[in-house]
From TrEMBL:
UniProt name for this protein: Pentatricopeptide repeat-containing protein
UniProt repeat feature PPR, residue ranges: 146-181, 245-274
Keyword Transferase: no
GO molecular function annotations of the record: RNA binding
Keywords: Repeat
Highest classification ranks of the organism: Eukaryota, Viridiplantae, Streptophyta, Embryophyta, Tracheophyta
Pfam family, one: PPR
Amino acid sequence: MCKNTDDIQRACSFGVFGGSRIGFGEETEKEWTGPYFFIKRLLLAFKGSRSTKFLPLSSFCCKLYSSRSCNEVLSVGVANKEKEFDFERLFHSYTKIYILKCFHALLVVSGKAQSIFIGTRLVNLYAHLGDVSLSQKTFCMIESKDVYTWNSMISSYVRNGHFRESLICLNEMLSTADVKPNFYTFPPVLKACYNIIDGVRIHCWASKLGLEWDVFVAASLVHMYCRFQSSSVAFRIFKDMPYRDMGCWNAMISGFCQNGNAMEALSLLDEMRL
């Protein structure tokens, strides 16, 4: 249930609704079918009369989604007569960005959008659907971010080709005193390095945090150095690994092949078979 006007304003003014008309772009213009107000439908979905008294304050919202679009969001999630929604089921139901925006508005009005867990899932889902700008806006709305939230934002940037932004996000994360990277943080940003200088700097951070010899991080370091024609450095890291899984062996063999070191690749393949 909406507890104050701030929730309504977030639902209406946040980027999930787009411009002053609160539209969803050309993709959903055809969905406009009548003078319905999505916020009204959302608020009335919750019990009690407290939420309805805020309806006049939401007039600045203009038109939101039609009843057809609203039903697309809610039809798969209504659980019982008390109008409780199965949010977990809803999370697995969206393949279109405009319906996810409606769901995000529902989460804001229901008071669940401030959850770190739900906010992080929204960050990932927006990125999966190709809208990294909404991932970033959702990320910024999460007040208390944990390491998984930061990792999700970094991965979202990398997944959508925003490599420089992922490095900036890592720098911001490292400057946050109460959150430190873990072994899931470094593999995506190592893929995002534009040059070996960025890679060496990230390598130093991983080493300082004691994550250099994690198999995921080490394999990513091998891949990064080979990508910048430094297979000798990559091989030294590979030989110093206390433990190697299949990914580490494959990264080093692939790196040798990429740099034209066919004999070394075959020799390492023979060693792997032993």
